[in-house]
Design goal:
mainly alpha, about 35% helix, three-stranded antiparallel beta sheet, globular
């Protein structure tokens, strides 16, 4: 009989990100001051990001807060606490170690003193 260790399931962060975003309705904004139309665009871009770039971002060490964070009280209204994907709702074109590249701009995570709020799915849970 083998005395090997039993396999351990390691959570897949990308699948968790995708599932958490997917579980928020595209028709009901999770944040006050974020219109349902803005949220639908942001949600779609976030799901697209997970599908196309999620694994690469995870390999580079991007966290749920750095990608999907919002201010703990004011949601997306305080963009200084928002993760890269919770600002404009634009689709991502590339992922680097320290930046997420959009068509016309980029979001960086190496800004000294930067703080990110909880992921939007945790914010929604607190509010709803």
């Amino acid at each position: 009989m083998s005395s090997g260790l039993a396999p351990t399931l390691i959570p897949n962060p990308v699948a968790m990100w995708h599932g958490a975003i997917e579980n928020i309705s595209p028709h009901a904004s999770p944040c006050r001051y974020l219109t349902p139309a803005q949220w639908a665009k942001m949600r779609e871009a976030a799901l697209d990001f997970c599908d196309r770039f999620g694994a690469e971002a995870q390999r580079h060490g991007w966290t749920d807060r750095q990608l999907f964070g919002v201010h703990p009280e004011h949601g997306t209204l305080r963009v200084d606490y928002c993760g890269a994907l919770m600002v404009a709702g634009d689709r991502v074109h590339a992922v680097d170690a320290d930046r997420i590249v959009f068509e016309r701009t980029a979001a960086r995570r190496d800004k000294q003193g930067q703080e990110w709020g909880p992921p939007i799915w945790e914010f929604r849970a607190k509010r709803g």
